[in-house]
Amino acid sequence: MPNIESAIKRVRVNEKAALQNNAQKSAMRTAIKKFEQAVEAGSENVASLHKEAIKAVDMAATKGLIHRNKANRDKSRLTAKLAK
């Protein structure tokens, strides 16, 4: 544990940011899984789930949680699954 006040605050800020980042990445993964399960089940709300998954991936890329190229790759794969 750091002794300097600014270092103590930095630890608190980093822990808070890590929690937010993990929550957003988890939400992204959940949106993708919901879409993929709906595609396999042949559900009628696939288009709306696709839109939510794409939005979640874009948000993660914007925040720097995933690389821009990974976001584009994921979106491309999701769109290909929708087209099938």
From TrEMBL:
Q: Which GO terms describe its cellular component?
A: cytosol; small ribosomal subunit
One biological process term from GO is:
translation
Upper classification of the source organism reads: Bacteria, Bacillati, Bacillota, Bacilli, Lactobacillales
Record keyword Ribonucleoprotein present: yes
Q: Which family does it belong to?
A: Belongs to the bacterial ribosomal protein bS20 family.
Per its record, what are the GO molecular function terms? small ribosomal subunit rRNA binding; structural constituent of ribosome
Q: What keywords is this UniProt entry annotated with?
A: Ribonucleoprotein, Ribosomal protein, RNA-binding, rRNA-binding
Is the keyword Ribosomal protein in the record? yes
A Pfam family it matches: Ribosomal_S20p
Please name the NCBIfam families in this protein's record.
S20
PANTHER family xref list:
30S RIBOSOMAL PROTEIN S20, SMALL RIBOSOMAL SUBUNIT PROTEIN BS20C
**What is the name listed in the Swiss-Prot or TrEMBL entry for this protein?**
Small ribosomal subunit protein bS20
Relate the protein's function as given in its record: Binds directly to 16S ribosomal RNA.
